[in-house]
Write the structure tokens for this entry.
Amino acid sequence: MGTKEVRTREEINALEKEIWNERTLDRTKIRKLRRHAFHFSYKKQKRILDSLVKDFSDKDVLELGSYTWNVWFKGNEVRPKSLTCINISDNDLETGKKLAANVDFKTDFRLMDANSLEFEDESFDVVFGGAILHHLDIEKTINHVHRVLRPNGKIVFLEPLNMNPLYKIYRKLNPKERTPDEHALISKDIAILKSSFTFDHYFFDFFSVATGFIALKVFGDKNYGNWLNRLGYGLDSFFSKIPVCHPLFARVIIYGEKK
Ligand SMILES: C[S@@+](CC[C@H](N)C(=O)[O-])C[C@H]1O[C@@H](n2cnc3c(N)ncnc32)[C@H](O)[C@@H]1O
């Protein structure tokens, strides 16, 4: 496995830009597993995100580092007052611009590093991000997010976690699925968030990863709504209510308000 190369933030940004512009990650294997393991939790995640963002209809929203743009442009009802999107990848921004061509709210796409937001203080009501914080220097970014939010401004982030030893091992064994410097969140990162924002959450996917793995072997890359995945999802729904179990989970939606 070897020692990890230490890169400066500029080097990390250059590498992230190149990887996302050229789509060089090999995610075939993890996608197959996710189609089983996250089959039910993806639906729950969508329901939760939809219900959180529906309150943003009169808000100025900043989204950090999107490429699927699922929340805003893909058949959803939500219509913020304005949506500003930043990304370090020109290609991902271009995708967003195309998807935004037909929306009737104000959009603004900017090539920018999320670690060093270039906006004025108190420019936004909401900062949103799907799987982005773990590509960044969390402390730097959270300071900027706090700065650019107006009083009582809101955050919503969906992020992978790296507290469960099994996920840590999986990640180490499958480095080509991720950018080399990304770091799924650990308790220290959660503490950084909590120091600047109130902290509410939904944890997803612990048992479902194991049942999804077995389901993939049993059913192949189809029949995702099977009983095994349903069982894993049911167990997760129960255990996610017990705080001491939270470090076992693979993903979290964090939402909160500026302190
Ligand atoms: C895992 S993807 C996020 C995809 C997101 N879940 C979505 O559905 O759109 C990571 C994104 O972060 C962007 N990114 C990585 N580092 C960044 C940085 N320093 N500033 C802004 N965007 C960055 C990448 O270009 C990529 O689009």
